Amino acid sequence: MPAGPKHFAYRAAEEVVKRFPGEPLYVVEAGVTPSGKIHLGNFIDMVLADAVARALRGAGFEVKGYLAVDSMDPFRQPPSFAPESFKREAHSYVGQPFEAIPDPWGCHASYAEHFVKPVEESFQAYGIDLEIVWASRLHRSEGYVKALLEILARAGEATEILNEVKRRAGHSRLYPEGWIPYRPRCAKCGRIDEAVRPLSLEGSKVRYRCGACGHEGVADAARGEGKPPWRVDWPLRWVALNVHFEPLGKDHMASGSGYDTGSALVRKLFGREPPVPVFYDFVYWVDSSGGSRRLEKFSKRKGTGLGVDEWLRYAPPEVLRFQVLKREVGDIFSEALSHWEFDFLQIPAYVEEFDRFEELAFGGSELARQVYALSLPGSPPPRKPRRVSYYQLARVAAWMEDLEDGLRMLKRQGKLEGMEEWELEDVKRRLMMARSWLEAAGYGAILRKPEEAAEALKSLDARVVEAFAEAAEAMLRGAEPGEAVSKAAETRGLSGREGRLQVYRAFYLALLGEESGPPLRRLAARPEVRENLRRILEILQSK
Known about the structure:
Layout: H1 8-19, E1 26-32, H2 40-58, E2 63-69, H3 84-89, H4 111-126, E3 131-134, H5 135-138, H6 142-153, H7 155-168, E4 183-184, E5 196-202, E6 205-210, E7 216-220, E8 226-227, H8 230-241, E9 245-249, H9 258-270, E10 276-280, E11 283-287, E12 294-297, H10 308-314, H11 317-325, E13 336-337, E14 340-342, H12 347-363, H13 366-375, H14 390-399, H15 403-412, H16 421-441, H17 450-457, H18 462-476, H19 481-491, H20 496-512, H21 520-524, H22 527-542
Parallel strand pairs: 1-2, 2-3, 9-10, 10-13, 11-14
Antiparallel strand pairs: 4-8, 5-6, 6-7, 11-12
Helix pairs in contact: 1-2, 6-8, 7-9, 8-9, 11-13, 12-13, 14-15, 14-16, 17-20, 17-22, 18-19, 18-20, 18-22, 19-20
């Protein structure tokens, strides 16, 4: 482990070794429920697990990482973004495990796989080293079944342990006497939710009655014909996979949480410690539409928030890792990583923030170097990379015809001077990401606000502003931009090439906040630009 100040991932790794000394293999785990689009909020789990795994490997330990998928959890309602045909028949799937339901879009083997597969396929890009563990396979594994049968054999004791924790936390709803900690799956209708009531327990056999279809039957827990409820399933996973570290949402810091009850179960029934945690707060989606700023929690079912795989269309993977890992906590047991108010329109700012931090990492503190190394998908570059500003790339992407055209524009601007091949490849990657972001955000995202533009024009010579207004009006009526600028400049006594350049600069200042930019004809072809010009003229004429 590094000497001196340490990033929380290294401090968590030290706690893991301290809590579980002498282990031949350390196990980190992340978890996800495939109820809908797996978003950036869910991804925090995976980044934190991977970061601690890296810290442990860096200290010379053998490490295994898992992403546990709760694919046997019951389906309750369709995502808001599902096809209408699926929504119409969704009632027939209610209560069934996610992995038993067909993919509404028809491109994967199941509903669960549709949401998990894109995440798994993005792991390489993010440098995430986690093995997917599906609940149905885990529930049939030897280690899990052995631990589950132990719980069932001591069901009364397990119930009292859970109730004791809940009572201490002030919970009024306790598990009743004779509670059976298993949820059978109905052999007739396939439900695995609360509608299927366990009636009696004998060894691994659970007799049940399904309140949905009326079927009565017997489920064999040893054969995975059902699943334990969450507060039992989770600690059983810790035992079966021998988990030593797991990130947790901030809600698990509360007394009586699933982590609290699970910790009590594994300590008292299995004589082992629970995994070391790192807690984190939620991610919120910033909605700036309509001129106001609203926050909404990311939601898998509503489709609110950016998907893990979707991020890669718009920004480099290291930037997302950095947004998670730049946060810091003092005491990992009593503090949580701060929340993130994610704004899609601020993706360029997130990339720029990473690039500024990169400067610090190559010339700053040891702690900065730790954060930087943990943020990268692979090994650090041989030296600090030469970068082109994402904002600059976005402006070029807005007007380029294709990638080669964009590179020519950057070269003319002197942005690629002295770059090696690996740096040029990064520019190409980011340029295409910037174009995708613009297409999604709208080209207006890179334009200056009309109010700011009108204010900036005040600093120019009055004749230049008048020529700008005259040329803009002509362009809005359909005039060719070059002709409109030449005529307006001449009318206002701005003769020659220098006079025309002053008017062109006024357009770039007003629209982009820059001294220069792409050909004005490319700018004027965009409806967003034309609308901006119209609003700037309205402001100028009102004063």
